[in-house]
Design goal:
By secondary structure, this protein is an alpha+beta fold. It has three domains: 71 residues, Multidrug-efflux Transporter Regulator, Chain: A, Domain 2 (Orthogonal Bundle), CATH 1.10.1660; 44 residues, no CATH class; 143 residues, Alpha-Beta Barrel (Multidrug-efflux Transporter 1 Regulator Bmrr, Chain A). The protein has seven helices and twelve strands. Strands 4, 5, 6, 7, 8, 9, 10, 11 and 12 form a nine-stranded antiparallel beta sheet that branches. The chain is elongated. It starts with a strand and ends with a strand.
Length: 266
């Protein structure tokens, strides 16, 4: 057996952490001396504590690690959990790569004496006349993260009914206040055929801009649009909407193309 000190030194896990693992039942010593409370571990437990360290390194929570330790020989179960973490890490890596790209642009502008917000001047805004469009849609209070799920439902309906898409999928934002966990959103697809399950998205004057880049840059576009609306003497007359011309699962964030429309009137 190994004392808690020796076990700690070999595994590079502090004795405080080992005591906590004992308290929550993650890895318990094989023997505790009743007289002095000293904890002892077996050498076979080194593999377990190393596994705990590996999973923590991969971003597993202690609760998730406990689930794995309940099924240590179930490769299928462990593989599924590892793949979930892999997907999350790839998404995070993509996010940080995008941040680095934005930082590089800001650094370049600052080195040339430009203001850090000078990029707003490059956002193009124009007034357009849109036509009434039949749309198949799902509107509800939703977590914005669930939007993709409803988009997939709509695409399935389009395929099952043999409908014809006329534009990329869109999201219409009906709430006055942004609440990402409980947002009045309408996910929609524009189709050629008008039927009982569709409604007409009204046409008319819209202030419009195109974002070529990550969705995180959308607030800058909306800010520029609102500035244009005020300067030109228009008022907002309807819910803004976005049309997604690229599939974010198929292109890099900086390659996304999103059209933003805000209905207006004089």
């Amino acid at each position: 057996m190994l004392s808690i000190g020796a076990f700690s030194k070999i595994s590079n896990v502090t004795t405080k952490t080992l005591r906590y693992y004992d308290e929550i039942g993650l890895i318990k010593p094989v023997y505790v001396n009743d007289e002095n409370g000293y904890r002892y571990y077996s050498t076979s437990q080194l593999e377990t504590v190393l596994l705990i360290g590996k999973l923590k390194w991969y971003g597993f929570s202690l609760d998730e690690i406990a689930e794995v330790l309940k099924n240590p020989e179930d490769n299928t179960f462990i593989l599924s959990r590892i793949r979930e973490k892999e997907a999350g890490l790839r998404e995070a890596a993509q996010h940080y790569q995008m941040l680095l790209s934005l930082l590089e642009k800001d650094i370049s502008n600052l080195e040339r004496g430009k203001h850090i917000m000078a990029y707003l001047e490059q956002i193009e805004v124009k007034l357009v006349e849109t036509k009434p469009t039949p749309i198949l849609s799902i509107r509800k209070k939703m977590n914005v993260r669930d939007s993709q799920k409803y988009m997939m439902e709509l695409m399935t309906t389009v395929q099952e009914k043999g409908l014809t898409l006329t534009a990329g999928p869109m999201s219409i934002f009906h709430d006055e206040v942004y609440d990402p966990e409980n947002y009045d959103m309408e996910d929609a697809v524009a189709i050629r055929e008008a039927e009982e399950s569709t409604r007409i998205l009204e046409g008319g004057l819209c202030v419009m801009s195109v974002l070529r880049g990550a969705y995180t840059e959308l607030p800058s576009v909306y800010a520029k649009i609102r500035e244009w609306i005020e300067e030109e003497g228009y008022t907002v007359s309807g819910a803004p909407y976005e049309i997604y011309q690229t599939d974010p699962s198929q292109v890099l964030p900086e390659e996304n193309i999103t059209e933003i429309y805000v209905p207006v009137k004089k």
